[in-house]
């Protein structure tokens, strides 16, 4: 009895050893490259740490300065929140629209899908960001098009009122990954539901709101969380297209963090910012999840 | 039985992994060692110097040519160049230095040499031979009496303008142009230009142009020689009022066009793409413009007022990282770089006018038109140049924020008075002893 028990435990243990060994490269990476730097940055966030000197303990100094004496911090937070609250819904709506268009049985649909997905493959790259600044510049494509309609364009990227808008457009244009997920979700919705609804005389709009949206809501939640987090971390496009300008109108939180850390080497302050940022993103994500109970519908739960 | 299989498979995986990594690391090692031995045969230990600089394509080409030449003469020394435009250059350099991974040789300018030196990032270069170099330039590369930077070129501030267009309009610049002359000229030219073209760049977002303006009023640089805040409130107000008026008249571009300026980018540099005719510049930058469209541009000294508006500066320094393992070799290279005539043949005026009097004499007969333009600007400025003192520690950061403040004023998001206060506050916050 006793021996059998021992063998049982050994067996359990030995199988998990093999498992851990198999994932050990990942574990090593996680502890050395993710967990340890996080612990370090948590410590640094309470210090005045200019990379080349040793850190000096400050207590909550960095955090109090951030909220009481740093207009740039508040400014960049506002810009980021504004960006997130516009880019995420727009991107999701657009992705859903395209997914519905692509969810038809047309000849050569897979070719369309590939073509439409393509911008997302290259969208976050530096080259596209440079392209973007040429499209929305004074002599850019957009103004030339507007010229045909005899509308006088302006420097969309150079103007503080429109610069953020061009960045929102840029990320909305990269709808591909959300679109693919939506498409997969749409394919899961049983066709019988639509057939039954049509027979009952439901029009397209009410089919969309009564069938598509509820059935798709778990996928929407997934995309929403993913895109919200991604949107908060917006960096490349803002850095290359506008450099945070003009006059800080696109100065995202991640840009400010980058500037503090790598242009000014204030690692302590930058670490504190990163932690505030993490908490903020965590809070927003938690909010999304909390709200999901009200609008996400799981088939397995049955109707509510 | 099952257990045995899982262990066997684990072993197989492990052995494959080991085999792959062994292959991976084996090859380059062999390659490196043969290279090394061939170098050793030619004398001296093989050394690779990492060298970083920023600038225009013309400068990149010239510098690479010089590096090749040096390797040919000293086969044991090879280079790993890291070069780019000024955009993002310093961010990269600070990151590398912070990671103790700075290049052996780094190009740094007057704005941040103090910052690097005060952090102990720069090696002592006192042993480099600078006998033929103007003592003023040499001393600009000192920090607390220690030589930390070797000046690479003589430079002067001034204006660059589109001579081709001005010639077509039949406009000739006067020899000693004052600010009033410049503004009047700009207003006179404007009606003759087509829509979307402007005679003058919006100087209200250009800290160098502002300093030229303040100097010409006899009010000194934006900081005193001992590093105190020195932007004159009255001059600042006047400067902004003038440019605001010019902006309203359409003589300088709207603010949203000015902020898209990207130096040397053929599409986004407002001078290169023909949007403006006048722009402030440093002499050493001239090659970068001239390279993109030859025989189009010309230089003119900083406009004057009661006093001269121009000054002379070392264009750039080469410094050696204090972490460099090959500091001695790096110093030898720097000595060659500024003193050797063959190096000068490759470099010409890619970093401003050569600092060594002997080298300058040597290259003088070989100069092209654009080189001569630089030297001419230097000579004209030198006559009554303002005495330049090194920028205080932290000035680079202040300059970045100052530009933002200037933009806020230009966009009308704040007024010049509040902008002045903001600049004063930033200065107090960022400039360290």
CATH architecture type of the largest domain in chain B? 3-Layer(aba) Sandwich
Span from first to last CA of chain B? 74 Å
Report the total helices of chain A.
Answer: 13
The chain pair forming the largest interface, with residue counts per chain, is:
A-B, 30 and 33 residues
The gyration radius over C-alpha positions of chain A equals 25 Å
Distance between the termini of chain A: 51 Å
- Outline of chain A: flat
Helix count of chain B equals 17
Helix content of chain B: 40-55%
Catalogue the unreliable spans of chain A: none
How many domains of chain B?
Answer: 2
State the order of secondary-structure elements of chain B, H for helix, E for strand. HEHEHEHHEEEEHHEHHHEHEEEHHHHHH
The CATH topology of the domain at 71-231 and 286-301 in chain A: MetI-like fold
Described by strand count, sense and barrel closure, the largest sheet of chain A is:
2 strands, antiparallel
Gyration radius of chain B, in Å? 25 Å
CATH architecture descriptor of the domain at 71-231 and 286-301 in chain A: Orthogonal Bundle
Number of strands of chain A: 2
Outline the structure in words:
The complex is a heterodimer of chains A (304) and B (433). In chain A, 74% of the residues lie in helices and 1% in strands. With 304 residues, chain A is mostly helical. Chain A has a domain at 71-231 and 286-301: MetI-like fold (Orthogonal Bundle), CATH 1.10.3720.10. In chain A, strands 1-2 form a two-stranded antiparallel ribbon. In chain A, strand 1 and strand 2 form a beta hairpin. Chain A is flat and about 70 Å long. The mean pLDDT of chain A is 83. With 433 residues, chain B is an alpha/beta fold. Chain B folds into 2 domains: 47-153 and 315-355, D-Maltodextrin-Binding Protein, domain 2; 155-313 and 388-430, D-Maltodextrin-Binding Protein, domain 2. In chain B, 48% of the residues lie in helices and 13% in strands. Chain B is built from 17 helices and 12 strands. In chain B, the strands form 3 sheets. In chain B, strands 2-1-3-12-6 form a 5-stranded mixed beta sheet. In chain B, strands 7, 8, 9, 10 and 11 form a 5-stranded mixed beta sheet that branches. In chain B, a hairpin with a 2-residue loop joins strand 4 and strand 5 (146-147). In chain B, helix 2 (57-73) runs antiparallel to helix 13 and helix 16 (395-410) runs antiparallel to helix 17. The termini of chain B are far apart. Chain A binds chain B through residues 11, 14-15, 18, 21-22, 50-53, 133-134, 137-139, 154-155, 157-160, 245-248, 262-265, 267, and chain B through 3, 6-7, 10, 13, 90-91, 94-95, 97-98, 119-121, 196, 254-260, 267-268, 273, 275, 397, 400, 404, 407-408, 411, 413. Chain A: InterPro entries: ABC_transporter_permease, MetI-like, MetI-like_sf. Chain A: The chain crosses the membrane at residues 20-39, 79-102, 114-135, 163-186, 207-226, 270-290.
